[in-house]
Amino acid sequence: MRTTVRTILAALAVLSILMAATAATAGDMARALTEESALTSILKRGSLRVGMDTFVPWAMKDKNGEFIGFEIDVARRLAEDLGVGVEFVPTAWDGIIPALLSGKFDMLIGGMSIRADRAAKVNFSIPYYDTGMAIVAHREVAPSYTKLEDFNHSGVVIVARKGTTAARAAARHMPNATLKLFNKEPQAVQELLNGRAHAFVSMAPLPAQESIKHADKLYLPFSGTFTTEPNGIALRKGDVDTLNFVDSWIRVVRAEGWIQERQHYWFETMDWQDRIQ
């Protein structure tokens, strides 16, 4: 009997040691994750490093060379609420996710649409606004087009920015057209203005704003967007603390109406035009 009791106690001791070791390991892992989170680094550093690329009116430079735009406002407000400064890290769009994963910046605030293939590489916050793809056409090259199907023919040339959801949307919705891709939106718009393309596809409201700026050459075949896309802030995978903070922050600023007010200013007015010219 005593041998049996000793055996049971020994087994319980081993089990306790294993449980303690497991708890210690879990605690160490949690501490390590917290210590390594972007949120911890941002607070220690005293600045939020934001990855972005220039997209009018999401991010662009004003007359003084300072970044302005919808996403710039979002990043500045997020940094302000964290009590830190903000540092913008301009990065080419087609390499912006690898740059985030390499630690070049803390998070990506750049009008990035939430997609499953991107979510396989990064964690997305909850959406902080929705947008979609729109199209603007050349008056002489594509006269009197009124619907998306009018552009889905061989011989039609569509221009868009490389690596964007605009390029994917154009390829998906107009597979019979020829798609020409450019590194920057202004290059694609210039191709359209030069009459070497029928239409330009991009995230709204840019096509509508280009049709206003170049009303003698461009027009909107139809109003609104032909896709709906939620946009989120992208973070490195495994960073639960930072993701939780960003999600909570989005809920608060949306409840305040602040995001909606900034959307109205940048997407539904041209009141900011004088700041860049």
UniProtKB/TrEMBL annotation:
It is found in: Cell envelope. Keywords: Signal. The keyword Signal applies. It holds the Pfam family SBP_bac_3. One of its GO terms (cellular component) is cell envelope. Residues 47-270 form the Solute-binding protein family 3/N-terminal domain. Coiled coil: none annotated. InterPro entries: Iontro_rcpt_C, SBP_3_CS, Solute-binding_3/MltF_N. The keyword Transmembrane helix does not apply. Residues 1-26 form the signal peptide. One of its GO terms (molecular function) is ligand-gated monoatomic ion channel activity. SMART domains: PBPb, PBPe. Residues 47-269 form the Ionotropic glutamate receptor C-terminal domain. Belongs to the bacterial solute-binding protein 3 family. This is Polar amino acid transport system substrate-binding protein. It comes from Desulfobaculum xiamenense. The lineage of its organism: Bacteria, Pseudomonadati, Thermodesulfobacteriota, Desulfovibrionia, Desulfovibrionales.
